[in-house]
Amino acid sequence: MALEIERKYLVINDKWKENILSESVLKQGYIANQPNATVRVRIAGEVAYLNIKSATTGITRAEFEYQIPRSDAEQILEQVAEHPFIDKTRYKVQWGSHVWDLDLFAGENQGLIMAEVELNSEDESFELPPWAGKEVSGDPRYYNASLVKHPYTQW
User: Fold this and answer.
1) Which one, of 127, 123, 105, lies nearest residue 114 by Cα?
2) Distance between CA atoms of 155 and 138, rounded to whole angstroms?
3) What pLDDT, in 10s, does the model give residues 24-76?
């Protein structure tokens, strides 16, 4: 089973911009959005994915991801997925020995900036960057699947 172990933080300043490795624009929508699992489609540039995640226990959950044709993803987003979509720009940012995903949300979630680090185990140590503020790993409001139903701009 594939596991995703990640910790999420709100971003409190722009110092992360000094360590950008890459940038991509993401659009994602949810086909199934239940308490026990989510199924989403994501387009990242010219590549698209189908992703299935279990409910989170602590900071760990099962995750399965498969590349699909971009044209299929576009049709699924338009015809099947919940609205609004999650629109964001993702930056890969190096800090210490980890590469962080830093997301600047747009659309209905404009103003939200979060960073997450994927770990190999729940107790893996890592260096917290100076741009990482409050940890929100356990706060379901910040899950992308929740932001579809309760966008950040409406809090």
Assistant:
1) 105
2) 18
3) 999 999 999 999 999 999 999 999 999 999 998 889 999 999 999 999 999 99
Contacts of 107 (CB under 8 A, 6+ apart): 84, 85, 86, 87, 151
Q: What is the pLDDT of residues 87-115, one digit of tens each?
A: 999 999 999 999 999 999 999 999 999 99
Is the pTM for the entire model greater than 0.85?
Answer: yes
152: part of which helix (H) or strand (E)? none
Cis geometry, peptide bond prior to residue 69 (ω within 30 degrees of 0): no
Please name which of 48, 94, 92, 55 lies closest in space to residue 71, comparing C-alpha atoms. 48
30 is known as an active-site residue: yes
Q: Among the options 30, 66, 142, 143, which is catalytic?
A: 30
